[in-house]
Amino acid sequence: MEPVSTCKLFGAVRAVSGICNAVPLIHGPRGCAYHIGYLLTARGGKRIRVLSTELTESDVVFGAADKLKKAIIDADRTLKPELIAVMSSCATSIIGEDIGRAAEEVKGEIDSKIITISAGGFESNQGEGYLEVMMTLIESIAADAKPSDEPSINIIGEFRGGPDLNHIVDTLGRMGVSVNCVLTSGSTVGDIEGIASAHLNYSFCDVSGIGPCRFLEEEFGIPFIHHPIPLGFSNTLRFYEVILEHLSIDYTLQDEVSEYAEERDRLRSELEGVRVGIVSGPTRAVALAGFVTELGMKPAVVAMDMIGEYTLENLSGTGLRSEVLVGADLSELEDALIRNEPEVILGGVAETRFSESLGAPLIDVMHGYALTAGFRGACVTGGRVLEAVRSRSY
Ligand code: SF4
């Protein structure tokens, strides 16, 4: 009754809003655009532009294809984007408005590339929205390309930019690996056109990243890896190792490992036995469970809004023995947290409500402003947990 995941349209808008100079245009009432734009702006701390055809009652009864065509042309002329992604909403999916046809009819009058996504909220959850945008982009924009001269990878299913992504791209660059395209955070339309020139794809999202990776493997022969993401000391080491192995790059990681080993050992000695609640999307939850365990803490409960095909297998690889929730609603999640008595919660701002009522400090590891990735990110997150535990004991 109190869902923990959101609608397909949210995922579609979020995926498109990560692309440079791209605009999502929702064919629906104004509320969809306002609420999604508000939430994404609040979470990411930067302006997210979400356009709407702002349908009225008569539009959703009789259809409003002309209004949509005018909105596409206006968006193209006023904002001059490289890409317009037209999306249906609940209202226009229910009446079966043909957004593909409307886009086709104005294609010759605009300079932007245009894609259409059926994104009625009831069609599915946000994971399906991410997936459909990435698949549509690859199928309609990516061109066949010869492999780049330098070893390169694509990161697939990464929607939060900021310090984590910058850190990963910089570190890979130092190792001699260039990041060809990130789907979608920070990519340009040109990056997506050239996505097939990478030597390897790495999925960062268990729910939405595997499909595009499989497609790129079948269509262009690019192999892919999906586990682990570089969050925590061991996961980070393994992440760089598998990429370097795959690309046959001779680079010793020992310097990186040694630089952070002392801090890792200090954190482990201070945090041993601390009970942690993890509330997250599946890929991050698996990585966090491994991170918490390697520092000697105990994952008291792991709650995920949804899972992908490899999530439970990867989670069992962490040796986890705690309660696992998948798609539980808010009251079930609250009950599980009360039952398992975590001392700190690793989650996002939405977990503030539980943090306050349980007296368990919240470490927000979801929303992109703090570094969490790589060896350095592991030290930062470990330090934040330690600070929270200490503040709790006073
Ligand atoms: S559930 Fe439907 S009405 Fe609500 S935001 Fe999503 S598309 Fe719009």
CATH-level-2 architecture of the largest domain? 3-Layer(aba) Sandwich
Give the strand tally: 13
Global mean pLDDT: 95
Count the DSSP helices.
Answer: 17
Order of strands across the main sheet = 11-10-9-12-13
Cα-atom radius of gyration: 22 Å
State which percent range the strand residues make up. 15-25%
**Which small compounds were modeled alongside the protein?**
iron/sulfur cluster
Give the N-terminus to C-terminus distance in angstroms.
Answer: 37 Å
Helix content: 40-55%
Order of helices and strands: HEHEHHEHHEHEHEHEHEHHEHEHEHEHEH
CATH-defined superfamily of the largest domain: Nitrogenase molybdenum iron protein domain
Structural class: alpha/beta
**Tally of distinct domains:** 3
Q: Which blocks of ≥5 consecutive residues have pLDDT under 50?
A: none
**Major sheet:** 5 strands, parallel
